[in-house]
Amino acid sequence: MRWWAPVVAVLLLAYPLLVYWGMQWLEPRFIGLALVLVYAVRGLAISTTASRRALILGGVLLAAAFFWWSNSETGLKLVPVVINLALALGFGWTLWHPPTLPARMAELQHGFITPAIKSYTDRITVLWVGFFCLNATLALVTALWMSRESWALYNGLIAYGLIGLMFLGEYSYRRLVFFKQHNL
């Protein structure tokens, strides 16, 4: 792992808190450009093809232009909405182009997928899609109609707690499902 990977991960996870604190001293455009720079470094470093790098570079330039010209705090606050919708689309895509993400993780962990486990991972994928859509909706509500403090609290703490609880519940239940499959 490169030295900057954990730094980038922490910056992206701390984004709502950085926006909250940064807005006290900086214009939104500068915070947005810093975010774009972090995503650019991450995206360009992990991309493996020239076409992916070109796509990332195009997205980075569009995002940088948006943040520079809009200078919008609301634009900054909508980033978690976009991330949650992207996660919902990513999980949803795998329903039509299997295996689903949970099926891939289960197969990596256990080395096999039974029909019952495939059915389970399909249902869990639908649950994750719904979860990320709900989280995107709550992030949108906080971005458009709540204070900066409420937005930062939800998107910088509560949403992560909900994701952790969802993962922990799903993982615990998955272990139970796999245990039953092993003992049939």
TrEMBL record:
The keyword Transmembrane applies. The keyword Transmembrane applies. The chain crosses the membrane at residues 7-23, 29-47, 54-70, 76-96, 126-146, 152-173. It comes from Cellvibrio polysaccharolyticus. Keywords: Membrane, Transmembrane, Transmembrane helix. It comes from the Bacteria. This is Intracellular septation protein A.
